[in-house]
Amino acid sequence: MLLQEPYEPRPIRFLEEWTIDGWRLKVYGISYRRARPRAELIEMAGRVARESLPPARVGGNYGVGYVGVHDGRGANFIFVDWWADENELHHRVYAAPSDELKDLPEITATGLSVCVWDLRVQCFERVAWLEAVLTNPRGADLEDYLGRRLNEDA
User: Fold this and answer.
1) Which of 86, 81, 70 is nearest to 108 (CA)?
2) Residue-range domain boundaries for the chain
């Protein structure tokens, strides 16, 4: 197998918490050879999240989740994930070439889920959900979950 380039850690940073239509979302930035994703891509992620989320606290969801904004080498990715039915994660993926900052179509149905950097966010969020909600001896604590934030180069 021939790699296009050697693996290089990317900054994965908690950017902020968004409140959108009753949802509380942790927002993460991931970027290729930049300190953080471009502002236009972060702004687009807000629009994508608003359009892709179901009504908050309806149908078994809890109104909490996270958004990934990945300013990648060859493509831009946005993923919107939310928790429902105690232990299930809903996941939607949007992508376009890296020079496209106007429209990122949903590509979830293609089967592409995450890259190794996006997967790091999902792994962190899984543990945060387990510890703050599912196995918390004091009971499920959504504030505890929302307060757990990933910041590392991975």
Assistant:
1) 81
2) 11-153
